[in-house]
Amino acid sequence: MIENIDSLFKQLTHGVYVIGVSNNERQNAFTAAWVMQVSHAPPLLAISINPAHYSYQLLKSSNICTVNILADHQFHLAEHFGQSNPNKMSNHQWQQDQTGAPILSSSLAYFDCKVINYTEAGDHVIAVCRVVSAAQLCKGKPLLYTQTGDLDGSSTLYD
Ligand SMILES: Cc1cc2nc3c(=O)[nH]c(=O)nc-3n(C[C@H](O)[C@H](O)[C@H](O)COP(=O)(O)O)c2cc1C
After folding, report:
1. What number does the ligand 1 atom closest to the CA of 47 have?
2. Which of 20, 40, 75, 131 is deepest in the core (most CB within 10 A)?
3. Three-class SS of residue 120?
4. Which domains occur in the chain, in start order?
């Protein structure tokens, strides 16, 4: 028996990120908190993604993505990209680096990545990503997952 697992998990320290994905024709982006560095050399990040997301189809078809760090004043962006909406890329400024996946120009910093491996993990898939380029875009402090409350609705998702 595990009581209050949602509030316990929320105390694991995570940032909040916008993951940019694309294939040749379509681009999308979604909010993610389950992102971590997993290697120094080569530089690797792991992203945990729900395979039911539209973004997962684009990721699997191209194996490229960006990880964009949100600042502490960008809760509204975490909310915006945390919803499924066919028009959510509009009215935001995007740029590209080596892979061509969308980079959110207003983020603190970005990592441009190629996926090298997928591993099933319960109701998510872990994408291990090699960082091929990265840069700081703005100064500021990162937004923390705990500051987003139940924005992701996760409190209802545990058995
Ligand atoms: C704060 C926050 C954190 C989230 N973290 C993740 C995550 O780590 N992995 C994931 O697959 N979805 C995560 N989500 C959910 C997706 O952002 C959400 O389901 C989104 O609608 C998926 O976009 P898509 O349907 O356009 O692909 C998170 C949402 C929020 C608001």
Report:
1. 8
2. 20
3. strand
4. 5-156 (2.30.110.10)
